[in-house]
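Fold this sequence, please.
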Amino acid sequence: MLKEYDLALDLKGREIFRLFKRLFDAEKLLHLHPHWFIEEIKEDREGVKTRIKDHATETHFNIRFALVISELSGMSLDFKNESLHNITLFNKNGRLYASVSGETSEQELDQHYSLSLWLRSIREYIRLFIKTTPNTLFFRFIMDHAVLKMNPSQRKISLMILRFTALEILVIVLIVIGYVIFM
């Protein structure tokens, strides 16, 4: 099976090789998966071997892969001894695409790897580094220094606290505005 995903990210005029080389290492790519907690990671000449716990399914499994970043093909994850053979991110006509090849069906692939969520997380992480606004600089700092160091349950708890805090601020602002208007 070979499937291509348009990640809807404009890369015109960007050198994707330098961008990938600067942004990604094996551990960061695994941390970008929204459901995986990396229990153990080992790098050697053959690639990366890691033990992962999937918080969505509560299963433990091992993945062995090689991260290859080349000027010609972009960035690829070559999985060894897995049903998934390769995930490649590349520039096609100025847009970011991902191609996925494997032996399993598309449905099995997406269930086991939560592939669409993982690719969306990678796309959003790349987007933070393509644009340089105060907003993206702030979220880039938060991602690198806090979010990517958390496991999935910690991320969910932090997001819940953030939502409650935003709601509390909104309620306080509405109370102050209502007090000023009616008094």
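Residues 142 and 148 are 9 Å apart (CA to CA). The chain has a mean pLDDT of 85.
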